């Protein structure tokens, strides 16, 4: 069994002081939302072993805040390719994950994460897939499980969307 947590970066400022998209920072609400998602992961005993994160400032800040709430921080890799990668490219990257790793957290961007979460979800628990369909909002978390021997077995429709949460949906 493999678990994949796809987390969109939290809410960001409209523009970075530098004017560059890559340098945009989280807003105070974004910081609070990232901490809330980290608390949710900890409270649900959802402990990633590996975290793959975009090199964008907003994604790195989200990862730092989320993992600060976990019992044990995962091995984290800042992956520059995640900034601007498409869903097919991310799927190929995930298929290369070491078979010893069973749980991966990806912190990145839309539309990639939304498209991949939706494409991988062949089934869902409750109304998770219906709620995910329109969008993966800032700090939105899609939790998928796969009954595959290794990450190379990831295929569209092969996953079960176990949970879809947003900061607004949490108490």
Give the SSE layout.
Blueprint: E1 2-8, H1 28-43, E2 50-53, H2 57-67, E3 75-78, H3 87-95, E4 103-108, H4 112-120, E5 121-124, H5 128-132, E6 141-146, E7 159-165
Verbal overview:
The protein has 171 residues and is of the alpha/beta class. It has one domain (2-99, 109-169): Phosphoglycerate mutase-like (Rossmann fold, 3-Layer(aba) Sandwich). The two termini are 29 Å apart. The longest helix has 16 residues, at 28-43. Helix 1 packs across helix 2 and helix 3 packs across helix 4 (112-120). It has a seven-stranded mixed sheet with strand order 3-2-4-1-6-7-5. It has helices at residues 28-43, 57-67, 87-95, 112-120, 128-132; strands at residues 2-8, 50-53, 75-78, 103-108, 121-124, 141-146, 159-165.
Could you give a quick summary of the protein structure above?
With 171 residues, this protein is an alpha/beta fold. It has helices at residues 28-43, 57-67, 87-95, 112-120, 128-132; strands spanning 2-8, 50-53, 75-78, 103-108, 121-124, 141-146, 159-165. The model has no long low-confidence stretch (mean pLDDT 95).
